[in-house]
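Dear colleague,

Following up on yesterday's call, I've attached the two folding results inline so they're easy to grep. Please treat them as preliminary; we haven't cross-checked anything against experimental data yet. The first protein's sequence and structure tokens come first.
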Amino acid sequence: MALKFTFGLLVGAANADWVVKERDVPEYNAQSSMWVKQETPSTEHPVTLTVALRLDDANRNELERIFWEVSNPDHVNYGKYRSVAEITEVLAVPQNQIDIVSEYFVQAGATSAVVAAARDTIQVTIPAGAAEVALNTKLHHFTHAEHTQANIVRASRQYALPEHVAEHVDLVGELLQFPSLPLKHLRNLTASSSGWTNACDSSSCNNLVTPAVLAERYKIPTSTSNAAGNSMAVSEFQGQYYKDTDLALFSKSCKRDVTVAVNVGDNKESAGIESELDVEFIKSVAPEIPLTVVYNAGYSLLDWASQITNLENSPLVHSVSYGNDEVQQSSTQYMYTSNTAFMKAGVRGLSILFASGDQGVCGRSGCGLFTHAVFHPGFPAASPYITAVGGTDFAGTGIGDETAWKSGGGGFSNTFGQPDYQKEAVAAYLADTTANFPPQKLWNATGRGFPDFAALGGQKNSYCVATGGRFEGVAGTSASCPVAAGIFAKINGERLAAGKPAMGFLNPFIYKNPAAFFDVTSGTISDSKKYGFTAVKGWDAATGFGTPNYEALAKAAMAAVEKTVVV
């Protein structure tokens, strides 16, 4: 039975030496993420928090060493992934540390404190009133300016922990982090006249991107069988579900088997256009591969990462249409902790793909109304430990060459340096005299460059999505990402069928094989502002290496496997 937080304990906590965790920016985060502060929750309102335990630096460094080795096609340990139990052994979080943190929250009134399989996070469910005392903060409901049904509880000021607990904790998630939600101006779209025939039965899909358009452009084969053990997933956050009737409508009209094999969490059987876009188009690309939909009701990147890395049989490829600007993150430590979770995924052999964003170089924070402020790179898109997918449009009226979508996310991190796998490609881009770079004061040329590659996602060529019993046009890198994920899930299938491991973290492979993409050499990602990054020959900060050529990627992937066998 859980211990309750007595009045005497309340007094003791109030007199403790408190240590502030993260930095005090929740109001800025909320405003720039379109969240509006409302009333305080009732004292008994349950809140769920992810407590990230502090890791020993040497143990985290060891995790990172393994991550790079198993992800590098040129390393003898490429593809030699580790289990959850082995990762737990590497991180080696002491039981005493877990006990101190768990007991603190249980004594504060938590109804549960569940330790993750890797023992590096604790999921705490606690009444709001008790949480305010335990964390020395104030909680409020927040609603979204566009998505008015969305409601989350967050702290309206910084939080703190008593010193004896704080020394064991890196941060407490779901307090200062305000998530992004899909922008409504990227739905209900019509497209300009195209030069292709609508392969779906519905006339509403005329001139829109359909499965047949993607198959033709990206040379995606039609498959009827799947290798044993292959799997893929899309991740959805609060309020984004799918209806089986919508998936059936899409399947019948567009002649693709769109079904969901597994739901992690509850599907509410309501039409969420973001969710249905993800499901319909990842399955359009790879209908033969079982699809898992992972729900995260709390809008929490950190909690989601813990979900997927602690699943014993986590899907091999994950597509996520989610993110905010780096400056909207609650702290650098939050991003650092998220990166640790991404490394755990890579060590497991999982491929994590994130959409690069839909606001050009300025992100959700914007670049100012009158004077041009600095660019705002996105996160997780700018993380060195994930694969970022940008957006394109067709350059002409038919299926052919592509151009950068003006609102696609891209640029350079202000937080993380360039990883080794991309230094050569980025250096070549920065030396390109045709690139027409923005003023240097607006961006960080030494940061991690993104996206890594791109796919169709722009408003000129929006996607035909079955939602709410009818078809609508939808655009954004939220469309690009599941398509890209489906392509790599199919490539995993070829590798697994040959008795080889899945691809895991993709970027070292991607940067070694630039010729496996259709280079995009026109267009600028500026959204509505004066400056942006222009697509040029080779890698660039608008579309990465360009868009996928399935045949070339699959050939390169199998060659990488053969090379490892020789070593």
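Below is the second protein, in the same order (sequence, then structure):
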Amino acid sequence: MMLDAWLQAQVAKLPQPLGGKLERELAKRWVALALALLALLSTIPIASVIGWGTTLLAALGLAALVALAIVGWSEYCTALVVVLGAIVLPWLALISFNFALGWLLRPLGLGLRASLVVAGIVFAAAAFGYLTVWKERRVAALVVALVLAPANVVGLPLLIASGKHESAVVASQPYVSKLDLAIVVPGGATAPVASAASAGPSRGWDVRWSVARAGDATSAWLLLDSSDPDAALAAASGAGAPLPGAPAWRADADRVVLLDVDGTPPAFEDPAALPSLPGRDGEVARWLRIAGQLAPGAQVAALLQTTDRARLDAWRRRLDPLGGSVASVQRLGSRSLADAAQLLAVQAPGASEELALATRYRPILLFDRGERRPSPFDVDDFFASGRVSLCHDDQIGGGDNCEAVLSASALTSGPTHLRIRPARRGDPVVASAIYVHPTTRTEGARTLLFLDYWWYLDDNPARVGHGATCGVGLSMPGITCFDHPSDWEGMTIVLDMDGDVATPIAVQYAQHKEVVRYAWAELQARWARWRTDPRSFLSRQVRRHLDMLDDAADRPVAFVGAGTHATYARPCTGPCHQTLDRTTENRYGGESAWTFDDTASCVEVACVRPLPTRHGGRDAALWNAYAGVWGDRHCILKGAYCTAELSPSAPSTQVRYRDPERITGWVDADEHAHRCGGDGVACPALPPAQAR
């Protein structure tokens, strides 16, 4: 009845005579009403992107222009509204179409070109309907709509993309996954092998072992090019007949020679219990001469059974300029010569101590209840699951040019990218781990250790605009669409290393393109206050997770954004924003805890792993060195219109890895966020360490 009354009122307003003009005026008013409803519907997804306040102001401004034009305030105003409305309102209609009906199109799996066709039809229909409100000649309205549709749906993305240079194809670069390791032991037999177990510090390497016995006059090879680390340990006892020939050093492998200077046994249960041995006159020059004779051009690593800092420094002064390294058996942590050789080949000498600190101070990861899988992947296990393929971007024809990759050693340098297959029922469960890249920096008179944490998940459903701004006609990567099929995120903890014990001084939360620093003391005091105050904003789930941890007071808490995986210092259940620029963010309520937040569970499975490196930790290696994109996507219109945004590549390719000191803003003691460079304000220096 109300609809009939409204129609009668509208008809009464129409000019006479009625005839055919009545039907046209009714149609015009229905079209205007329909387009107004579409515009109103579009404000919901738009508001989720730019905020309700901004959206409301924009909608009111547009409504005011339309009202002025309708009442005939000015012919120029009317003409302006007609022109602008013919562009703006069809875009709003397209957003509304995706918001209301996008769920019907997604199962169809429309290709990029087909989705552009659908978007063009929706845009043209909305423009035609809008123009018929103002124009009597439908033919002219149809012509204008057919011109505006491709100009906007195709032309606008091309215009926006003209200043962006985004590509999923990377240039070719060196890639090494092979190690040729040689262990050189002193002349004469050493202690027998106590244990032949050798796990190695990292996975994915293709290792060939050789062992030599050093003599004053000549040296002899006891093992050549074996793939068995247990055979290397057996040969490292120094016994056995010399073998003819020399190792077949591979051209595409890193060549490393480990000098067992003090005749340390091949395997040992407790490295710290080994006695500290003094050095001998001329030992550095003698052993370097032996290494040069046995393995010319190899990276040299010296293993000393000593805790004497002066002796270690004397070796370090000779090896550092040569790109070599020296380590104390007692402090390295490895329990065999094979483990020590591989560790010093790929990691820095202090990696074991740094890894222990990284495990102790690792963040407490709390995921939002909407997170699909609140557990970061062990990357090597993820490769082994069969869900990763290497795709060659420079090949033409012959299928999809992709091949399964079950190990990081099977990766090749660009131009390639990784295809991540969505999980299916029956796929193996992937183990969980987070990774750390320790970096030492000197700031004035103090030494700082940056523990740069990274974690990987196999998707990034940003869900910006409820999917409406990422639907047909709106898949502009990084502008309207932020979903991508793979994600690397993390955070950084800064330790002052100058005292008797390492002291945390700052936490740096990575939030997409931003890195926000908090002073450790202020952050911990804030958390202590929030946890003990029953009136604070922490939910019961968050309190329960933290109360179950014995060391929660000594570790930073990271609230992980649902789908986006950025980290925040406090929870948010909506509406949520990034810390610095208030950009819209998904929830990060922290209702789900990572299994390995518990320290006992983490230590049992070694849930914190070093990122793969080589050359004694100086260069990235294996999947950490892979520069291609971790995720498949397709683009048209010169990369302006894509199935997904460009996924982050491996940690070593990212700014935070290369420059862990860099921040873009900070939060002060009053919980106010500041951007570096804002109002001419520079980022503050790292705070001093406080007594613990």
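For the second protein, one point worth flagging: DSSP finds 18 helices and 27 strands in the chain.

Best wishes,
A.L.
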